Amino acid sequence: MHDIIIIGAGIAGMTAAVYARRAGRSVLLIEKESIGGQITLSHRVENYPGHEAISGLDLADKLIQQVLGLGAELEVDEVKSVSREDGVFRVECGFSTFTSKALIAATGLKHRRLEAAEGYTGGGVSYCAVCDGAFYRGRDVAVVGGGNTAVSEALYLADICRTVYLIHRRSGYRADRAELDRLFAKPNIVRLENCTVDGINGGDELEGLKLLSTVDGSSKELEVAGLFVALGHIPQNELFASLAELDESGFFTADETCATNTPGFFTAGDCRRKKVRQLTTAASDGAVAGLAAAEFVDGL
Prior knowledge:
single chain, 7-stranded mixed beta sheet, 6 helices, 5-stranded parallel beta sheet, elongated, 30% strand
């Protein structure tokens, strides 16, 4: 049995492992896909303290080496089920079953993908304006989406890009009134309503978009240097629905303490309900959850 099992080896999960190991607890880190999570899709990270510029892959590699160097164990497998009985957490994976005294879920988010843009992530298509917007300074870009995320992305990009095209399949937006007022006041945001992105023009790098009207089925092309997809996020918390409280969107309701309503069960990173989702806030959650889990184990 391990003291702490951490599910998810993104920035939050790996930071939790660092702090839990430094607190002297035995740690098992389980990851089903890529070490580092979503950040590995970014070719250049410029907003992580201590690194003027670093690729997402390099950042993840440095962190996992630190985690392993501290003595944490790593299991690459998919978690199939999680349960708790008599104060012990049981994590069943595809190939093995593990138990622990405390559990940290750092499962992150999945961006709602844009099928027409598959294959261009990192090649002109981004899912984070704060992360990658600076690379398009002074150029024309597009944002696809119609909710708060899309409007916020468009407003952010409008301050650094020449023209921002906001593409939405309807004419109405699912965003706050204050945000919409700011949107309508921006002269360099062009709203392209009642249309969708039907394809990408370009070779290895995006050069433009193919747009399709949702009204009459007509098509047109739009020349842009980048496309920011803001169709929302999907939390990956279904496995824990019977263990911890989730909100209406599927996010853990844990607050800044990172503790769920189940004793010994903590969460960290983008999978919990929060306003700001950045590398730095993921690392902060990981530190809090790692220390809280270690303190819980000590209390046993």
